[in-house]
Design a protein that fits this description.
Blueprint (H helix, E strand, L loop, with lengths): L11 E3 L3 H14 L12 E7 L4 E6 L4 E6 L12 E5 L2 H10 L3
């Protein structure tokens, strides 16, 4: 199943603007101030955003998996922030998006 052609649930939408995607990727790197955060050092691609909150779907390029990250828009030192949920396949991504009720 190709994720690029699937409809996303709720207020989620695909990022079509590459510049905005790069900005979100940079913001993620900035926010992960703790070396213990699971996203530190990950090569990512911003794929989709939630239209009602600061959740962003990133494709983890080296692991061939996905992460939904709640950006905080500030540098964090607690490894729990920004919060993230990692999923191994696309059906888990769609389920997580729908469960968040956005």
């Amino acid at each position: 199943m190709s994720y690029e052609t699937d409809d996303l649930p709720g207020t989620w939408y695909y990022l079509r603007d590459q510049e905005r995607g790069r900005m979100l990727e940079s913001e993620l790197a900035h926010e992960c101030g703790s070396n213990q955060h699971p996203m530190v050092g990950q090569r990512v691609e911003a794929v989709a955003c939630c239209g009602t909150c600061d959740d962003v779907l990133f494709k983890l390029l080296d692991r061939q998996s996905w992460a939904i990250v709640h950006l905080t828009w500030r540098r964090e030192t607690n490894p729990s922030w920004p919060s993230c949920d990692v999923m191994e396949n696309w059906s888990e991504v769609i389920e997580e998006m729908a469960d968040r009720g956005h």
